[in-house]
């Protein structure tokens, strides 16, 4: 059996992955809060852990892997979005608007992640379907002294869990000093975090022993993972931005509520998609959505390929150049494998690269080396969710021939060298860029490449 090694954030080492039960390998990924379209950064964990899901299915059998990714459909950000719509004159009660917003966002999410070739997880629980389990878990935590109720709120008593901070490697005192912990009159200690909070009459709320209210975000994942995967399971994944406080809080809640279990044994964190060195995020406003790119004509498969060229533990940028190169490679491979049946199994070198802590960049290098064996190239690429027939419509579009434009631009440039008037060169270059062409001019000559988002109809006349 293929040995999989994974970098476990909990131990900060690469470890051999040994599941608790090879008949049912269990993985949980923190899913989206469904209040708006997913931005490109949100798609990174989906693609990265989709590759892990595919690898686990290969090694243990598709029927022996349970992959859970939740939808957080109760959250203040969702409420705020619905409230803004109501204030803008939308019809219906706030509750109806909230429901409509979450339904709409989940449908967008599915469409966008399907376009990236991500398999649907085995289970996609919605937080609102597990409120009873959350209330039960909170009640248990109060009973065992790990939580307390005050003024309609329930708080987790952080100092009651001695291992708090172990995942992110910080002490509670460091965290207080560094983090923006909220001081509130209902808290015994500023580090304590909310398990339950009261809801106004017009906000979604559920009856509980502490009054009508709603759960905090962290308890949602603890309750859903317990209900669906048990008190001990194999892998918990998410973005590194969730390591503290979200995952630290999940561990504290789950380990205190279920001391008989170990909660998650391997923690995997993807690094951030960045824009000029900063995390792409809604709050910074430096984001574009997956849908923006798809609408610009960038195939989902190209987005996926760009992600997989960087190891998941490294920060990365999205650039038009990376997209153009990915598109050229995929186009070449699709031409090579057209009409060919995939080989019965993926190449061992590709499997070995993926099994080595998801070395997707290494696996892509191996794919390049398989150009002489298209059947193997196909089966190996498909293991990574690439070259799937259903995702290839974009590549069937006729390949553009830019030779005439290349010759014209070269002529203009040669003429400009003599006349010293570069305006005609600049004008043509600008027109080509506007049509989505990547223009490369060097001493060696002129090179034109149809970039992602290329539109032949916009090409300048010759
Ligand atoms: N820039 C990014 N790069 C990679 N992963 C990210 C990035 N931003 C968010 N994520 C991940 O996306 C997933 C969904 O997160 P969540 O729904 O909390 O995002 P959000 O609140 O909409 O985004 P933001 O962090 O932009 O406010 C999480 O696993 C999170 O770690
Ligand atoms: Zn979570």
From TrEMBL:
<keyword id="KW-0963">Cytoplasm</keyword>
<keyword id="KW-0547">Nucleotide-binding</keyword>
<dbReference type="InterPro" id="IPR024909">
    <property type="entry name" value="Cys-tRNA/MSH_ligase"/>
</dbReference>
<protein>
    <recommendedName>
        <fullName>Cysteine--tRNA ligase</fullName>
        <ecNumber>6.1.1.16</ecNumber>
    </recommendedName>
</protein>
<dbReference type="GO" id="GO:0006423">
    <property type="term" value="P:cysteinyl-tRNA aminoacylation"/>
</dbReference>
<feature type="domain" description="Cysteinyl-tRNA synthetase class Ia DALR">
    <location>
        <begin position="349"/>
        <end position="395"/>
    </location>
</feature>
<keyword id="KW-0067">ATP-binding</keyword>
<keyword id="KW-0479">Metal-binding</keyword>
<feature type="binding site">
    <location>
        <position position="250"/>
    </location>
    <ligand>
        <name>Zn(2+)</name>
    </ligand>
</feature>
<dbReference type="InterPro" id="IPR032678">
    <property type="entry name" value="tRNA-synt_1_cat_dom"/>
</dbReference>
<dbReference type="Pfam" id="PF01406">
    <property type="entry name" value="tRNA-synt_1e"/>
</dbReference>
<comment type="similarity">
    <text>Belongs to the class-I aminoacyl-tRNA synthetase family.</text>
</comment>
<comment type="subunit">
    <text>Monomer.</text>
</comment>
<dbReference type="GO" id="GO:0004817">
    <property type="term" value="F:cysteine-tRNA ligase activity"/>
</dbReference>
<dbReference type="GO" id="GO:0005524">
    <property type="term" value="F:ATP binding"/>
</dbReference>
<dbReference type="InterPro" id="IPR014729">
    <property type="entry name" value="Rossmann-like_a/b/a_fold"/>
</dbReference>
<feature type="binding site">
    <location>
        <position position="221"/>
    </location>
    <ligand>
        <name>Zn(2+)</name>
    </ligand>
</feature>
<dbReference type="InterPro" id="IPR015803">
    <property type="entry name" value="Cys-tRNA-ligase"/>
</dbReference>
<dbReference type="GO" id="GO:0008270">
    <property type="term" value="F:zinc ion binding"/>
</dbReference>
<feature type="binding site">
    <location>
        <position position="282"/>
    </location>
    <ligand>
        <name>ATP</name>
    </ligand>
</feature>
<feature type="short sequence motif" description="'KMSKS' region">
    <location>
        <begin position="279"/>
        <end position="283"/>
    </location>
</feature>
<dbReference type="GO" id="GO:0005829">
    <property type="term" value="C:cytosol"/>
</dbReference>
<keyword id="KW-0436">Ligase</keyword>
<feature type="binding site">
    <location>
        <position position="246"/>
    </location>
    <ligand>
        <name>Zn(2+)</name>
    </ligand>
</feature>
<keyword id="KW-0030">Aminoacyl-tRNA synthetase</keyword>
<dbReference type="Pfam" id="PF09190">
    <property type="entry name" value="DALR_2"/>
</dbReference>
<feature type="binding site">
    <location>
        <position position="30"/>
    </location>
    <ligand>
        <name>Zn(2+)</name>
    </ligand>
</feature>
<keyword id="KW-0648">Protein biosynthesis</keyword>
<dbReference type="InterPro" id="IPR009080">
    <property type="entry name" value="tRNAsynth_Ia_anticodon-bd"/>
</dbReference>
<keyword id="KW-0862">Zinc</keyword>
<dbReference type="InterPro" id="IPR015273">
    <property type="entry name" value="Cys-tRNA-synt_Ia_DALR"/>
</dbReference>
<feature type="short sequence motif" description="'HIGH' region">
    <location>
        <begin position="32"/>
        <end position="42"/>
    </location>
</feature>
């Amino acid at each position: 059996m293929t040995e999989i090694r994974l970098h476990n954030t909990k131990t900060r080492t690469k470890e051999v992955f040994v599941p608790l039960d090879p008949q049912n390998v269990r993985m949980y990924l923190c899913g989206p809060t469904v209040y708006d379209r997913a931005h490109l950064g949100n798609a990174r964990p989906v693609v990265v852990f989709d590759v892990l899901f595919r690898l686990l299915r290969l090694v243990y059998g598709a029927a022996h892997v349970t992959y859970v990714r939740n939808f957080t459909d109760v959250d203040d950000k969702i409420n705020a979005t619905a409230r803004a719509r109501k204030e803008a004159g939308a019809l219906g009660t706030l509750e109806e608007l909230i429901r409509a917003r979450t339904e709409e966002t989940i449908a967008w999410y599915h469409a966008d992640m399907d376009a990236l070739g991500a398999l649907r997880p085995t289970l996609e629980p919605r937080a609102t379907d597990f409120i009873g389990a959350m209330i039960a878990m909170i009640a248990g935590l109060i009973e065992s002294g790990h939580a307390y109720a005050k003024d309609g709120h329930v708080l987790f008593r952080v100092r009651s869990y001695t291992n708090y901070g172990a995942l992110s490697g910080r002490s509670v005192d460091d965290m207080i000093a560094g983090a923006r912990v909220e001081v509130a009159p209902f808290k015994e200690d500023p580090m304590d975090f909310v398990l339950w909070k009261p809801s106004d009459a017009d906000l979604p709320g559920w009856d509980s022993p502490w009054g009508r209210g709603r759960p905090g975000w962290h308890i949602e994942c603890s309750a859903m993972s317990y209900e669906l995967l048990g008190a001990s399971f194999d892998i918990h994944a998410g973005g590194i931005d969730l390591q503290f406080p979200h995952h630290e809080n999940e561990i504290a809640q789950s380990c205190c509520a279920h001391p008989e279990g170990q909660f998650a044994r391997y923690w995997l964190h993807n690094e951030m998609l960045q824009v000029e060195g900063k995390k792409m995020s809604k709050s910074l406003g430096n984001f574009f959505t997956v849908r923006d790119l798809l609408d610009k004509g960038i195939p989902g498969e190209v987005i996926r390929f760009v992600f997989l060229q960087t190891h998941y533990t490294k920060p990365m940028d999205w650039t038009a150049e990376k997209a153009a190169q990915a598109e050229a490679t995929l186009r070449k491979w699709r031409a090579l494998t057209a009409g060919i049946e995939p080989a019965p199994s993926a190449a061992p070198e590709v499997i070995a690269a993926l099994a080595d802590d998801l070395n997707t960049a290494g696996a892509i290098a191996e794919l390049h080396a398989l150009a002489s064996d298209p059947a193997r190239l196909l089966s190996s690429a498909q293991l990574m969710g690439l070259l799937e027939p259903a995702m290839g419509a974009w590549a069937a579009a006729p390949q553009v021939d830019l030779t005439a434009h290349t010759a014209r631009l070269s002529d203009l440039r040669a003429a400009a060298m003599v006349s010293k008037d570069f305006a005609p060169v600049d004008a043509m270059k600008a027109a080509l860029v506007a049509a989505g062409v990547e223009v490369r001019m060097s001493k060696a000559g002129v090179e034109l490449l149809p970039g992602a988002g290329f539109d032949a109809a916009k090409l300048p006349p010759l």
